[in-house]
Specification:
Blueprint (H helix, E strand, L loop, with lengths): L8 E6 L5 H13 L3 E6 L1 H4 L4 H8 L17 H8 L2 E7 L1 H9 L5 H7 L5 E5 L3 H5 L1 H12 L3 E2 L3 E4 L5 E5 L3 H12 L8 E6 L3 E3 L5 E3 L5 H12 L3 E6 L11 E4 L3 H11 L5 E4 L6 E3 L18 E3 L3 H6 L6 E8 L3 H12 L3 E6 L8 E2 L2 E4 L2 E4 L3 E2 H16 L5
Parallel strand pairs: 1-2, 1-3, 3-4, 4-5, 8-11, 8-13, 11-12, 13-16, 16-17
Antiparallel strand pairs: 6-7, 9-10, 14-15, 17-19, 18-21, 19-20
Helix pairs in contact: 1-3, 1-9, 4-6, 5-8, 10-14
Length: 399
């Protein structure tokens, strides 16, 4: 289950416009985050996409009619708005924005919006000339004055072939904005520094030593910290993962580069998550040219790398340090030993056979009070739980 305090419910309103197709993918993303989605479509929206599509994606009947007989009291606008933690209209057409700005309520979606007791987000989508139209801009100012948040629009190529402002934000960006509404900004004003992914220690221009690491847990933690309002710096080894929105990513290759990047980014850091699978050894010498294969055995001399986590934790005034222990056996013994040897307050441990490269995982938190297993789940959900535990340890409430 999604590790929000409880499952969240949103109304996703869809108005007429070619960008309505993006709302289908957005619905899928929201459901994947275990957000309950009630779709309400205008009649114009049904001309671009079908209710059947959204019923299949959301798992709920799509509402289109103010007098829907499936609602026992025939008050679909009241039933929908009272169950919602948030209403998002994406795409929001110029016509619909004008209705909301004027307080009109002549169909199910506009009536639901008018009867709401929850936040309203509008994601505009229209031709660039419609967006810049003085009447539309007047409506935009009125909506903002009424406390309604506008998400976008973006600028770029439009369906009509013109280029400019008016594009609907991409579904991933809309998902990010919705999730931010659901998570407490407990890390506002805090700086979080993370390492993630593997390092690559070069033997020659084409060969090297590395560790198996997808970087998924580190990136999930960066996303969770950003959702919680933190300034996030993510120092990442080689990985194909996109940087979480709003995070500053610094790309590195070797353990030495990662150490240098950590040192540079460390000032002002409140929380340091050492998630990266840093190579323990690096070649003593790197060949400038590709080494040719021969018949004789090849010997490689290795030198230990600097333990980045221990190095940071040993500073006179270190940030709150969180280590990670990926083990194949004896997890509790090795994780607790790592915590004590490095003198850090928390280690997140997992068995590699249950986590490596996967989107889900199973972890145990080890601190001075003992072991705290978390329920198995997606790494994005586990990251939010880890962050909540870290926050409670690092920033306890004043007595």
């Amino acid at each position: 289950m999604n590790q929000l305090a409880q499952q969240r419910h949103i109304v996703l309103g869809i108005t007429g416009g070619v960008a309505a197709y993006k709302a289908a993918y957005l619905t899928r993303l929201l459901v994947k985050e275990q957000v309950a989605v009630q779709v309400i479509m205008t009649q114009a929206a049904c001309g671009f996409v079908t209710p059947a599509t959204f019923q299949a994606l959301s798992g709920r009947p799509v509402l289109t009619d103010l007098w829907d007989e499936r609602i026992p009291n025939r008050m679909a606008h009241i039933e929908s708005s009272r169950q919602a933690d948030l209403i998002l209209v994406a795409p929001a057409s110029a016509d619909f924005m004008a209705k909301v700005a004027a307080g009109l309520a002549d169909d199910l979606l506009s009536t639901t919006v008018a009867a709401r007791q929850c936040p309203l987000l509008l994601a505009p989508a229209m031709n660039r000339e419609m967006w810049q139209n003085p009447a539309n801009q007047r409506n935009v100012r009125q909506l903002e004055a009424d406390g309604i948040a506008l998400l976008g629009p973006a600028s770029g190529e439009q369906a009509c072939g013109e280029v400019g402002e008016g594009r609907l934000l991409e579904p991933e960006e809309l998902l990010y904005q919705v999730l931010r509404q659901f998570h407490p900004q407990r890390l506002a004003g805090r700086k979080v520094l993370l390492t993630a992914g593997p390092t690559f220690e070069a033997i020659d221009p084409v060969r090297g030593i590395t560790n198996s690491s997808s970087g998924k847990m580190g990136y999930a933690l960066a996303q969770a910290a950003q959702e919680a309002g933190a300034e996030v710096v993510l120092i990442s080894g080689p990985t194909a993962l996109p940087a979480p929105r709003g995070c500053a990513r610094i790309a590195v290759q070797s353990a030495a580069q990662m150490l240098a990047a950590v040192e540079e980014a460390l000032p002002g850091t409140d929380l340091f998550f050492a998630v990266a699978a840093v190579a323990d050894y690096t070649p003593s010498a790197t060949s400038e040219h590709k080494l040719k294969k021969g018949h004789a055995p090849f010997q490689l001399t290795l030198t230990p790398t600097v333990d980045i986590l221990a190095h940071v934790a040993a500073k006179p005034t270190p940030p709150f340090c969180i280590g990670f222990a990926a083990e194949s056996q004896h997890l509790a013994e090795y994780a607790e030993l790592k915590r004590r040897q490095k003198n850090i307050p928390l280690v997140v441990g997992n068995l590699v056979q249950r986590a490596l490269g996967r989107d889900d995982s199973e972890v145990i938190l080890f601190d001075a009070q003992g072991a705290h297993p978390l329920p198995p789940g997606p790494k994005t959900h586990l990251a939010r739980q880890i962050l909540a535990h870290v926050h409670a340890l690092a920033f306890p409430p004043a007595p």
